[in-house]
Amino acid sequence: MTREEIVSLFARCQDAMERRDAAAMAAQHAGTCVMESPTAGGSVTGRSAIAQVYESWFRGFPDLVATTDELLIDGDRVAQLWTVSGTDTGGFLGLPPTGKPFKIPLLWLCTVQENLITHSHPIYDFTGMLVQIGVLKTKRV
Amino acid sequence: MSRDEIVRMFALRHDAINRRDLDFIVSQHATDCEQISPLAGGTVKGREAIGKLYGTWFKGFPDAVWAYEELLIDGDRITEMTTQSGTDTGGFMGLPPTGKPFRVPVVWLFTVNNQQFTHARPIYDFTGLLVQIGLLKAKPA
Q1: Tens of pLDDT along B89-98?
Q2: How many angstroms separate the CA atoms of A62 and B61, rounded?
Q3: Cα–Cα distance between B69 and B71 in angstroms, integer?
Q4: Is A140 on the interface with B (CB under 8 A)?
Q5: Residue among B73, B107, B141 minimizing CB distance to A123
Q6: Which spans in chain B are helix H?
Q7: Residues A51 and A37: beta-carbon distance below 8 Å
Q8: CA distance A91 to chain B (A)
Q9: DSSP 8-class letter at A2
């Protein structure tokens, strides 16, 4: 893929995120794409499973805002820095809504091929996010 | 900087990390380098402050191992994907050692100029690490 094609692919992802459209987001991934996701508790494969991951975010945080800060491209590998924020008014991971907000930086590492994402690995403070929204409680030991 | 120069710079960095050579690690940072660090709870600036962060890590986890994936290089910006593991036998962040191990993916985002890092940002599940080594106890709210 050319740099321009990759930039276009990630612009489509950004657009899908802004519309909170899980199906449109999943459509940017290959049918065999593997996503390493803390939300899913490990790796998931395929558009349907990936759509479910995005759906759990959009359902849990109906006001979700994901802004992109940087896009790095090296051959078929891409890194994108996001700032993600929202409020747990919809219930995250099937739990009752807590009404609490979160804001986290997230680095999204991807491999791309033929205008699709073939591997996806978002890295962020997942545990810290669960603490921010009040799903997890922590105390110093 | 050329790609070869950047790759060479990171090879030297990895050697220094393996040797726990704090002087060399910080010498690769510009004197006004900023590092956004969960460990610092925000942004630190300058070699001394950045050296303290590496020192905290190596003191807490004397057996720390950094496993590296291929660098992603886009001009003057780089991501260094690592899996970091270790055991809290030295006492992390000045707290008593817990003796517990951890393993987390950590992605670093760097900007380089003239053979030096001018900006550094590690992103990882810092809260999850604190839970793994037993400094924080987490339970469903």
Answers
A1: 999 999 999 9
A2: 40
A3: 6
A4: yes
A5: B107
A6: 3-19, 22-27, 47-60, 126-132
A7: no
A8: 13
A9: -
Q: How many CB atoms lie within 10 A of CB B102?
A: 22
Q: How many CA atoms lie within 13 A of A96 on its CB side?
A: 3
Name the percent of chain B in helix, strand, coil, to the closest 5: 35, 40, 25
- How many angstroms separate the Cα of A107 from the Cα of each of A66, A85, A99, A123? 12, 14, 25, 5
- How far is Cα B78 from Cα A70, in angstroms, rounded to an integer? 11
- Alpha-carbon distance A118 to A30, whole Å? 5
Q: What is the pLDDT of residues A18-54, one digit of tens each?
A: 999 999 999 999 999 999 999 989 999 999 999 999 9
Burial tier of B138 (Cβ tally within 10 Å: 0-12, 13-18, 19+): middle
First CA to last CA across chain B, in angstroms?
A: 49
pLDDT in tens, B84-141: 999 999 999 999 999 999 999 999 999 999 999 999 999 999 999 999 999 999 999 8
Any A CB within 8 A of B23 CB:
no
Tokens of A106: 């997230």
Distances (CA, A) of B11 to B18, B71, B109: 11, 10, 16
